[in-house]
Amino acid sequence: MQLSITGHHLTVTEPLRDYVTEKLQKLERHYDHITNTHVVLSVEKLQHRAEATIHISGAELFAESDCDDLYAAIDKLTDRLDRQILKHKEKLVDRHHQRTR
Question: Are 77 and 62 in contact (CB under 8 A)?
Fold first, then answer.
């Protein structure tokens, strides 16, 4: 998985980069056909935002989350992406089962 992390009004530090990388590695457990991931971390006044675009075979998934803490926003983001990946995987399995019928 190719991972790019950028910051908007924020400097992406090494511990922050490691945290995002660790969280996004967990997504590969459910679906290992993730090719490219782009994460944007931003701060606007007191709101911290994390948004990500994931390119997988057959689809492009996008999620964003806002929170008072940047690490909590990253956690919410990975939860949302995890649900989207599982839903996409279920669709692929359902299509496969319909073809065999």
Answer: no
| Farthest CA pair distance, the chain | 55
Name the strand (E) or helix (H) holding 5.
Answer: strand 2-8
In the chain, where are the structural domains located?
2-100
CA 1 to chain centre: 12
What's the confidence (pLDDT) of residue 5? Answer: 96
As a whole number of angstroms, the distance between CA 84 and CA 13 comes to 28
Q: Is the confidence at residue 95, as pLDDT, over 80?
A: no
DSSP H or E run through 53:
strand 47-56
Main-chain dihedrals φ then ψ at residue 89, nearest 5 degrees: -65, -40
May I ask the CATH architecture of the domain 2-100? 2-Layer Sandwich (3.30)
58 phi-psi bin (left φ>0, alpha ψ -120 to 50, beta other): left
**Residue 3 tokens, joined:** 């991972």
pLDDT confidence of residue 73: 96
